[in-house]
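Issue: ligand-bound run for zinc ion - logging full I/O for the record.

Environment: standard queue, default settings, no custom constraints.

Inputs:
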Amino acid sequence: MISWQCPHCGKKMHSAWDDRENELIVCIHCAGTFVNPFYREEKDKPKSLRDEILEGEEIKKICGLWADKAEEISDKLDVVISDVDNDLLSRDQVVERLIKISEMLY
Ligand SMILES: [Zn+2]
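Outputs:
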């Protein structure tokens, strides 16, 4: 059993789970927020496909080329990212889509 004492109202909350993935806790009594002392940043967690794409080389190449087509490209990237969020694309398919986007720029 885990418990927190809210620094705002002084009341306690209890839970079976330490809520470690949340940096902030919201008090159920007064709705005040405070830092979760059990928070643990999961550094060992493998990167999600989304992060991998957003930090990847393919997207950097495209971003380096936007300039005059920024709006058009950013709309297309939004579509790709939302498909990734919905688990509709594998990494290879993403790269393929990004290559297609970057080809439009030439
Ligand atoms: Zn409180």
